Amino acid sequence: xxxxxxxxxxxxxxxxxxxxxxxxxxxxxxxxxxxxxxxxxxxxxxxxxxxxxxxxxxxxxxxxxxxxxxxxxxxxxxxxxxxxxxxxxxxxxxxxxxxxxxxxxxxxxxxxxxxxxxxxxxxxxxxxxxxxxxxxxxxxxxxxxxxxxxxxxxxxxxxxxxxxxxxxxxxxxxxxxxxxxxxxxxxxxxxxxxxxxxxxxxxxxxxxxxxx
Length: 212
What we know:
It comes from Halomonas ventosae. This protein has 212 residues and is an alpha/beta fold.
């Protein structure tokens, strides 16, 4: 069965993997792997998973985890650059780290910080840590974020990447029911071209996209 890719809207998609819980399809155009729409979690079930997260800026382990995105992005932005942490979660931490480094930050999260007014402003950089894999409409959402950046602005995305089909079948990342789309390096290369950006991969889970 061919489904429409939620990133690039291609219908050139095919079966990639299945397990006892869900099916996974892969787009032949942008290489995104995705769960069919009818197998995504309901809003209440999705929120229940998010409410279990216990992330906090007081947790040094969580800060170390986020440093995989924070460190390379911090090296590429100007002093005082203004940022948005998109999908900040119940315990915003990446925004705190940037603020501590002298960068004014706004936060947005549809569950925990739902002020959509922040999405009508422009930013020098935007972060999306462990967010992309949750997006039901990643093409629409990521294009919207790119539109909030000026030329030279950065979009920093941290999400674990698909490597191959055999590894995918054993991957713990697919066990989370709120993970519904899965990016590979090829997916980010397609995305960068589509959004008129260039992409770097400074760490295995990190993609940095800069607007031309």
